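hi! just following up on the protien thing from before. the input was this:
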Amino acid sequence: MENKKYSLAEALKILTDFANLNNSDNLEVIKWIVIKTLRLKREQFDYIKCIELEELEKMKKYIKRYITGESLSRIFGYIEFCGELFDVTENVFDPRLSTEALVSEVLKYDYKNPEIIDLCTGSGCVAIILSKRLGVCVDALDVSPFAIEITEKNAKKLSGNICLIEFDLCDDWNKALYKKYDVIVSNPPYWNASKILTNPEVVNDNPLIAFNGGEDGLKFIKLIIKNSPMFLKSGGRLFLEMDPEQEKEIERLLLDGGFVDIKTAKDHRGIDRVISAKIQ
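and the predicted 3d structure came back as:
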């Protein structure tokens, strides 16, 4: 019997309905599962002509696994970020599509051999992509030795030029940083306890340390804003990923910290996700 085939629109409708029945409506995740099941790149999604029934059934199984708590990286063994495939483990935060906006904002500025540091680097996705796109060495800092290990592995695999720094941002930054930067970029932990407890499907299969931003979610953002002026060159810029609910408070912190030219940028879903500012 010939295997039934579905158009992309038909398949997405079936998969979306299936996800909805299981109390999930994340279309971006569904699209990612479609792409990876078919072994395609993200930019090829709109060119999919048809999906066979056998493939559709696989996609349903992957969606069910995701909904019941498995991360995409656990299901497929890797994650795509800015067109590159990153190895990830249960010890590092899975790169998110929303974080691509953080990279895009840094790349909007015209730098000449910039000095860059990525704080809370995790899998190294931001640092490695910036290194490759700008052709420079990027410092990549994290408190976790597991993150340092996977960043080193990804950098070797993807030919990223990375200098690794294992350090806790709660300590004296002068113990680890010895120069000033044109760019400080970070996707720090920025969820509070309430958000962590009410989003178990996101937190599962990721280390809790990657989410826990303290009581108000701003513990590390406050530390970064406080310390960054000492390690930014004049005119240097700080880029932060954030929860959109924190935007006004972060703007206040930046202004109080001596930053100017504050700008926000949206992620792929049209949500304010990145805030940046310049030090005079």
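Residues 5-68 form one domain.
The mean pLDDT is 88.
cheers
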